[in-house]
Amino acid sequence: MNLPNKLTILRIILVPVFMAFMLAIPQNGVFVTVSLLVFVIASLTDTLDGYLARKNGLVTDFGKLMDPLADKMLTTAAYLGLLTMGRCSCWAVMLILTREFIVSGIRLVAAGNGTVIAASVWGKVKTIFQMVSIIAAFLVMYPICPENTGIFITDILVWISAVITVISGADYVVKNLEVFKEAK
Question: Per CATH, which fold does 3-182 belong to?
């Protein structure tokens, strides 16, 4: 197994660690800081694994399939945690998760036909914006930001993520309609 794939697996392993700290005591500054650091490290593995895979010619079908799934696991955990803490809209999270299920379904159908679909530019933009907005959501949990302002900022960022996520999902569906035509 190559280094980029190991980094993808590390990101998957970091998801429950992130969740444990995020939900332990949400208003505890130490737990917020640790969960933020774990999220940042996991997010950086996404950038690093893709860079190393492309630079060193280590792109694999495993990476094409698991890298986006690892990203979905990480961002889904964060959005569900923010939702649990009452810091974002259920509707926005529902839109984000719906897109993720649709895209994952298309990927599974394609994989069943022997085709692995790599992430598109829109998918990468979506993931980057989601990760940045989640990091910002954690930063506004600190005492320097009044509670109502922090929740408002987080909700706005999650809604922007939802819009970008829906756009990337629509782009993905349109570009991969042939997957449904080829499905048996």
Answer: Four Helix Bundle (Hemerythrin (Met), subunit A) (1.20.120)
